[in-house]
From TrEMBL:
<dbReference type="GO" id="GO:0015074">
    <property type="term" value="P:DNA integration"/>
</dbReference>
<dbReference type="InterPro" id="IPR002104">
    <property type="entry name" value="Integrase_catalytic"/>
</dbReference>
<protein>
    <submittedName>
        <fullName>Putative phage integrase, catalytic core</fullName>
    </submittedName>
</protein>
<dbReference type="InterPro" id="IPR004107">
    <property type="entry name" value="Integrase_SAM-like_N"/>
</dbReference>
<comment type="similarity">
    <text>Belongs to the 'phage' integrase family.</text>
</comment>
<dbReference type="InterPro" id="IPR010998">
    <property type="entry name" value="Integrase_recombinase_N"/>
</dbReference>
<dbReference type="InterPro" id="IPR050808">
    <property type="entry name" value="Phage_Integrase"/>
</dbReference>
<keyword id="KW-0229">DNA integration</keyword>
<dbReference type="InterPro" id="IPR013762">
    <property type="entry name" value="Integrase-like_cat_sf"/>
</dbReference>
<dbReference type="Pfam" id="PF00589">
    <property type="entry name" value="Phage_integrase"/>
</dbReference>
<dbReference type="InterPro" id="IPR011010">
    <property type="entry name" value="DNA_brk_join_enz"/>
</dbReference>
<dbReference type="Pfam" id="PF13356">
    <property type="entry name" value="Arm-DNA-bind_3"/>
</dbReference>
<dbReference type="Pfam" id="PF14659">
    <property type="entry name" value="Phage_int_SAM_3"/>
</dbReference>
<dbReference type="InterPro" id="IPR038488">
    <property type="entry name" value="Integrase_DNA-bd_sf"/>
</dbReference>
<dbReference type="InterPro" id="IPR025166">
    <property type="entry name" value="Integrase_DNA_bind_dom"/>
</dbReference>
<dbReference type="InterPro" id="IPR044068">
    <property type="entry name" value="CB"/>
</dbReference>
<keyword id="KW-0238">DNA-binding</keyword>
Amino acid sequence: MPKLTKRTVEALMPEAKDYFLWDSQIAGFGVRVMPSGAKTYQAQYRKGGRTRRVSVGRHGKITVDEARKLAKEIMGQVAKGENPAEEISQHRKAPTVAALCERFFEAHAKERCKPSTQKEYRRAIDLFIVPALGSFKVVDVERRDIAELHHKLRDKPYQANRTLGVLSKMFNLAEIWGLRPDGSNPCRHVPKYREVKRERFLSQSELQRLGQVLTEVEREGSETPHMVAAFRLLILTGCRLGEIQTLKWDYITINGMELPDSKTGARRIPLPQPARDVLARLPRTPGNPYVIEGKLPGQYATDLQHPWRRIRDRAGLSGVRIHDLRHTYASNAVSAGMPIQMVGRLLGHTQIQTTMRYAHLADDPVRQAAEENAARLGSMVGDIRRPRLRAV
């Protein structure tokens, strides 16, 4: 066996079958010549009674000396009791991030999450995660890869943080499923972007304009009675869009709306008389269990966004979202002096911190009460208005 050099390797000619030429200096280091003429450097050793072989590079891509150095490293790993060939084989078989995404969606999202959450996860996976990381092996993803993807979405801080949350959950499950070592979640310590919460509330005059437009479109028939009723119910109950959109007649009882499932689980929502009046006026189609009927028989309306845009633009409320009707309900309750805890119960919040975004509105009635009380007291302690300066 000669010492492998560039000259000896390049002199090797292909044969009908592949063959090996081993180095005279390092046991187990050689070159494999394929019938096609391709030549790859190999490191061969025995482990567990079996011969194992690792390809360390292709001739032309790396030099003989580089291949010899890599072969030495592999033999050193074998001497320590490791099995490089098996590790490489396992790495080749390891799932990609794209495969992890599908397993996460099928085994977790579909089993445990509501349809709206599934939709958000699917969007993050298809638009952001798979295009950026889909071809990566799950075991190879590092914190810098996550941070880079998060940074690319910096102009959309809300979407960036939601995508980071999906990734974090996926890699937690990857640890549980044995696809990564425990405590190796690459999303750890990647800081989220600050999100500016929108707090758009309709003023009294804006609500009156909206109410007028709802009456007009219902009277002229440009929007269906069910669509108009949906927006009125959102204003009068403070419900989430999905809660009204999928509301069934069976859920309406003497106690209110008994929802078997919502964002926060089963929930009972008070149904005040104005809301009951809206429901009483709605036409009902036999065989359709939903309050807000859609175009398809027996189904609920799936598109409220387009009707809402037509209505809000006609009312001069461009930019107002459907969710802002829920904010308006909450802001009116707090401004009227209702305790924050009660507002949270009406909105179905599970944590008081969620409701505290409206807490500053409670200052308005307190400030007004202070002004009125001080005005009464001021009249009793004499004229305390600022004196006018005399002209010199």
